[in-house]
Amino acid sequence: QMPGTARHDREMAIQAKRNLSKTTDPVERLRLQCLARGSAGIKGLGRVFRIMDDDNSRTLDFKEFVKGLNDYAMMIDKEEAQEIFRVFDKDGSGTIDFDEFLVTLRPPMSNARKEIIMQAFRKLDKTGDGVITIEDLRGVYNAKHHPKYQNGDWTEDQVFRAFLDNFDSPYDKDGKVTTEEFMNYYAGVSASIDTDVYFIIMMKNAWKL
């Protein structure tokens, strides 16, 4: 289990639900609704959009956007959805680019936080190809300490896979973690941690950086 993440996830979800009642900004409300589902909430919404993007254009029109929000059970009325859509449809083309959408939806992080997250990513990405896989983990992560490995429930690969699933999307786990997925995950964790200093200490301890 990732150090502190389950606890941070719970704290963040509670905090997000609390803040929801206070904010009127529609984009912030959408962000908080995602975060109320834990660190993978924003990534999950991205997956829903990706599934809806039938023609692989990586863009969504308003109808698809609203359907995606409904499929993900977001509580948003049509006016609010229109307002959010307008924020993201900067050029007024009637479509939004969903990579841009997800980056904007991600809680903002300081450069210091992004840098330490990338350090952890690079440490895990043994092969240096920009994707973390089970192969990468063999060299960095010791499965033998895992209780499920010790009592014989899981093989080493199953331990690695469960570890990767922490960072992978809840809907489409492919056993590979991209830089973007890793960043999205930690943007969620980061949202529950007030100071850069504490976030950096937590990351250094967690990844022995």
Automatic annotation (TrEMBL):
SMART domains: EFh (SM00054)
InterPro entries: Ca-bind (IPR051581), EF-hand-dom_pair (IPR011992), EF_Hand_1_Ca_BS (IPR018247), EF_hand_dom (IPR002048)
Domain EF-hand: 40-75, 76-111, 112-147
Organism: Atlantisia rogersi (Inaccessible Island rail)
Pfam families: EF-hand_7
Name this polypeptide is given: CAPSL protein
GO MF, one example: calcium ion binding
Origin superkingdom: Eukaryota
Alphabetical keyword list: Calcium, Metal-binding, Repeat
Lineage: Eukaryota, Metazoa, Chordata, Craniata, Vertebrata
